Amino acid sequence: MAFESKDDAKKRNEMSNGLKKRNPVGNVNNRVFEREKMKEEIESYPDGIAVNWSDLSGRHNITNTKGELAKNGGQIAQEWLKKEGVNIDRFKRKNDGSDIRVRRKKLRGQGGEIMVATPQNIDKVKAEIRKKISSGEYTVGQQIAPRKYEKMALNENGEIVRSEFVVEGRKQPLVEIRERTLKSQEKHMRQRCDDEYDKMTSESLITCLKAINEYHEDENVQSMRDRLKDIERTRHLCNS
Q1: Cβ 58 vs Cβ 77: under 8 Å
Q2: Whole-structure pTM over 0.90, yes or no?
Q3: Where is this region: Disordered (predicted)?
Q4: 3-class DSSP state for residue 49?
Q5: In CA terms, which of 34, 106, 167, 182 is 20 to 30 Å from 43?
Q6: What beta strand segments (E) does the chain contain?
Q7: Which helix (H) or strand (E) holds 58?
């Protein structure tokens, strides 16, 4: 049986501090891929979007030593962009804590083989809904078409008691629906100011136009810039 004393462990730990940390992607400078095109594409992305690094590496032909598409191409792309001084932390990352869901307690049946979710407390659910309605997170719409009705019931003495109540419908105003939709889809919208269009190079303009199948050969840079600006700032409605 092997045993290492505390002093020996300390010495080994001190000696290992000078070791170079292993890089899982190797030397990215030896890789052959479309470096500048990938860099321009990444720099044209807005902040906060989720980048599919694997898809990006495949489109820019990041290969391994055998000439095949690298399975860790996303890691290679990120490592090379970091060395080029590109800030990739501005993009959304998986498991960043923004989509954490609270796990509810489970009820275990007799024997322990079957578990079911614990029912939520109705009073707590109602209080939570009222809180979200008052804060504006939930909207109950506007009351429409109120109708007044009369009902009759017997009291404890057997006498008929008449009372009135109102029944109405509710509708969601179109303006509120549009505002919520625009807010939820804001991250997918192309929003560039004039300065961003002016800074775009010829290659980045061609890439953007090819992505929407609007690239025309023998077109000058200014014409491509104006046409891309016009396309991205125009709302296109498609019939499904």
Answers
A1: no
A2: no
A3: 1-30
A4: coil
A5: 182
A6: 106-108, 115-117, 142-154, 160-171
A7: helix 53-59
